[in-house]
Amino acid sequence: MARKLYVGGLSFGTTDERLREEFEKLGSVESATVIRDRYSDRSRGFGFVEMSSDSEAEEAIKALNGTTFDGRQITVNYAKERTDRGDRRY
User: Residue 84 above 80 pLDDT?
Assistant: First the structure.
């Protein structure tokens, strides 16, 4: 079962590919996505990485949480389950 990780504090220049490359050093990556603003397409400074096993996810947290990546200190931990936020009209 794949395990999803939250990665915060990303540089605005970090790409999906660069994020994947860094986490692949620690195991098999199912997906790596930098979240982007829907209007400007600029990075929002965080993303998600899905590792192929719980043990690889745990190793990634231990190895990368609090380290410097692309010039910024990142936070890596387990992603929280997404909750329904209802109708988000502005």
Answer: no
